[in-house]
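Protocol step 4 of 6: structure prediction from sequence.
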Amino acid sequence: MFGLMQQHGLLISGLIEYAARYHGDTEIVSRRVEGDVHRSDWSTVERRARRVARVLDALEVAAGERVGTLAWNGYRHVELYYGVSGSARVLHMLNPRLHVDQIAWMINHADDKVLAFDATFAPIVQAVAPRCPGVRAWIVLADAVPEDLRAIPGMLAYETLLAAQDDLYVWPGFDENLASSMCYTSGTTGDPKAVLYSHRSTLLHAWGAALPDVMNIGARDAVLPVVPMFHVNAWGIPYTTAMVGAKLVLPGPALDGASLFALMDAEGVTFAAGVPTIWLGLLNQMQHEARKPQALRSVIIGGAAAPESMIAAFQDRWGVEVRHAWGMTEMSPLGTVCTLKHKHLALPAAQRMAVQTTQGRPLFGIDVRVVDADGRDLPWDGRAMGELLVRGPWIMADYYQSGKPSPLRDGWFPTGDVVTIDPDGYVRITDRSKDVIKSGGEWISSIEIENIAMAHPAVAMAACVAVPHPKWDERPLLVVVRKPGATLEAAELLAFYDGKVAKWWVPDDVLFVDAIPLGATGKMLKNRLREQLLPRA
């Protein structure tokens, strides 16, 4: 017997219509590439998104065809999120921090027909346009086409295009399983792989993100996604804020600590999301100002493991709750978020912190397993380490046009993360499978080694990599950037590990460097470090 309920598809157009109808006057504030602060609201975004759809009709972009973006977090990018996907086209967010060869490859692989870009990325467009013959129109997100771009065939200006259209567009109805957007993985070896999200998966993810134990945001919040909109849909925040009616504050290109502090303070930001490297800059500015942004109550940290020292600095000194999160491009991206259970609140501080440094428990809708090298399930005892497998309604089933079989194993996606899971379901990522250090047949967690180093007051950044060893196969080497003015030496830092880990986990040496290479999403590039250290090994 089937239930007698109405069947209404979950569509992104329905989400922006809801936002316009029920909290249309809630602000969207953007720091623009032009240097000023722009104010819009959800109602205006919806009207202008309809014009975006009209523009794509005029450019003869068919349903299902891809529209690329090279853009910062701003109101025009939000309009594209809704105007492109809502009209049954597919939004393809490109990461401008990648090399132009990779960007050109992704544009061609995705077969983008239109590409919209912020004017700051004009040099990238000039470099890739001759190599991307399939792009019929290049749209600069500005009032007019800058003179230095007028020679590129098909160059148009966003505001001119929108001004020529009306907003009487009627959002089409279609299957909720149709593609809505596309992101490429930030993998460091081989060609990036494309993940193709659906309308259904996107809205389910947005619902999950809004839950009290996840982002815990609502209509009284002002939300600042520091995570870029070209990085896994800004972790779904442009959708979740529309769903709950939150004020959306968009930082544009100014992501330094001072700029973020000023914007948060001025706009009453209550919740922010970003990677650890961003929060280091903000914490330094808070130290400089001797205060936090006035309304800030919580941050979510993902993209890389947050060191204990960072969590403690936010919470103990500034009273800002930290939620540690984990996910992947293949997962839309949220998989787990660390929110304490009631029973944890009475624990001593050190034991509470031991929970908070995990990646947390799965959201409803996400199922997890930890398996050994033979695919056998391991116990959830907080000790057994194995590979993490996941499944759920916003996790990909296959990569777009990869030319390879689906990576799923009996319906489970292998994440490549080495983890433990405790009896309450809290996942602790001990390493990526490619980064784990295997010494004498036993595993050493490079992440744990890094987190301990980051707790030292003289350490600004730390990376732990494996180097070959004649007896033990591999041993850990710690690579460290000192804080400005610090005089830390190797012996002092290695002594800092006493009593914190087993003696055989302590790195064999410390290499001090001026900088650790970072990838396009702020993650440490350990593969590049290993390449640089190979002669040393």
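Step 5 (inspection) to follow. The chain has a mean pLDDT of 93.
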